[in-house]
Amino acid sequence: MKKLIIDTDPGIDDAMAIQMALNAQELDIMGLTTVFGNVNIDLTTSNALRILDLAGRNDIAVAKGAEHPLKTKFAGGVPFVHGDDGQGNTYKPASKSSAVELSASAFLVEHILRYPGEVTIAALGPLTNLAMALQMEPQIQQLVKEIVIMGGNAFCAGNATPAAEANMYSDPEAADIVFGADWSLTMVGLDVTHKTVLSKHDIAEISTSKTPLNRHVMEAYKFYQDFFKKANKMDGTYLHDASVIAYLLDRSLYQTAAYPIRVETSDCLGKGKVWPSDGASDQEERPALRPWRNRPLVNVCVDVNAKEVIDLVKSKLML
Ligand code: BDR
Ligand code: CA
């Protein structure tokens, strides 16, 4: 079984991704680390605890993480996408469990050091906790198995702004640090998540499963569907966070290409845009390409077998 920590800002699609991971026999979830993002850190943490309650998995630790981006203040999240409570205004009662004493970044460092070469991290929110973990213990670059992130848009438009994807936009400084580290990193961004659509028929099918967690996720999902209807004139939804779990379960469904990446960190129209460099062969001679020089190659998902991903997602949710 793959040892996995999910760094997350639940979030309706985060909840679906966590549900999928909990149901996957192939994955051993060692903990959920939380980060501000879709809503504030108190809500993302209590949502993570409640998701585990509904799954009957309070044995899994939750470690509370960053309240703010590295250099700025939390800007209020996206309640119009995920509801004021981050779970589609379902307002479930608070969990009786609480987060562990360790901060998310300390939890990440501790587990990576304890199981060298074994821990995979699925990052489903802003990359603040990961950047902080790297600053706390740079050795984790060599000791982590791999990082798979939901975020960024390499060759397509953004969703938070025309330029940028929401997780990168929320903390571009952290993203630029994480993309610059020397570890195995895969980006599952809008280039593939916007090609993977969970239709209203798929959602109706998934809703036939009546486990407590599935009932909750499907109830919250109505809010998420309404957002997509208003914002994108779609009956279904794009498959963002669950795509990371799909990648971890069957990476043959994704086509990847390797690029050095920079993230726009200035507070301008392009804030949070992920910029891959196509590696022009004369790049050493071009001063304009200096920012990309000596940056590690990031595995960018550029295409996807969307039908098979949707089938995989449904098979893992409908238990
Ligand atoms: C990402 O932004 C958040 O709203 C979702 O949970 C997902 O992680 C999609 O851009
Ligand atoms: Ca998320």
Give a short synopsis of this structure:
By secondary structure, this protein is an alpha/beta fold. The chain is 38% helix and 18% strand. The protein has one domain (2-317): Inosine-uridine Nucleoside N-ribohydrolase, Chain A, CATH 3.90.245.10.
Account of the 3D structure:
- With 319 residues, the chain is α/β, with parallel strands linked by helices.
- It has a single domain (2-317), classed as Inosine-uridine Nucleoside N-ribohydrolase, Chain A (Alpha-Beta Complex).
- The chain has helices spanning 12-23, 41-55, 79-82, 104-114, 128-136, 140-143, 166-170, 172-180, 190-193, 200-206, 212-232, 241-249, 306-317; strands at 2-8, 27-34, 61-63, 119-123, 146-150, 185-188, 197-198, 237-238, 254-263, 274-276, 297-304.
- The chain has a nine-stranded mixed sheet, sandwiched between helices.
- Helix 1 packs parallel to helix 2 (41-55).
- The radius of gyration is 18 Å and the shape is globular.
- The protein starts with a strand and ends with a helix.
- The model has no long low-confidence stretch (mean pLDDT 97).
- The structure holds beta-D-ribofuranose (BDR) and calcium ion.
- Residues 11, 13-14, 38, 78, 81, 124-125, 150, 159, 165-167, 240-241 line the site of beta-D-ribofuranose (BDR).
Which characteristics define this entry?
13 helices, alpha/beta, nine-stranded mixed beta sheet, binds calcium ion, two-stranded antiparallel ribbon, binds beta-D-ribofuranose, 319 residues, 11 strands
Secondary-structure blueprint:
Blueprint (H helix, E strand, L loop, with lengths): L1 E7 L3 H12 L3 E8 L6 H15 L5 E3 L15 H4 L21 H11 L4 E5 L4 H9 L3 H4 L2 E5 L15 H5 L1 H9 L4 E4 L1 H4 L3 E2 L1 H7 L5 H21 L4 E2 L2 H9 L4 E10 L10 E3 L20 E8 L1 H12 L2
Parallel strand pairs: 1-2, 1-4, 2-3, 4-5, 5-6, 6-11
Antiparallel strand pairs: 7-8, 9-10, 9-11
Helix pairs in contact: 1-2, 1-11, 1-12, 4-5, 5-8
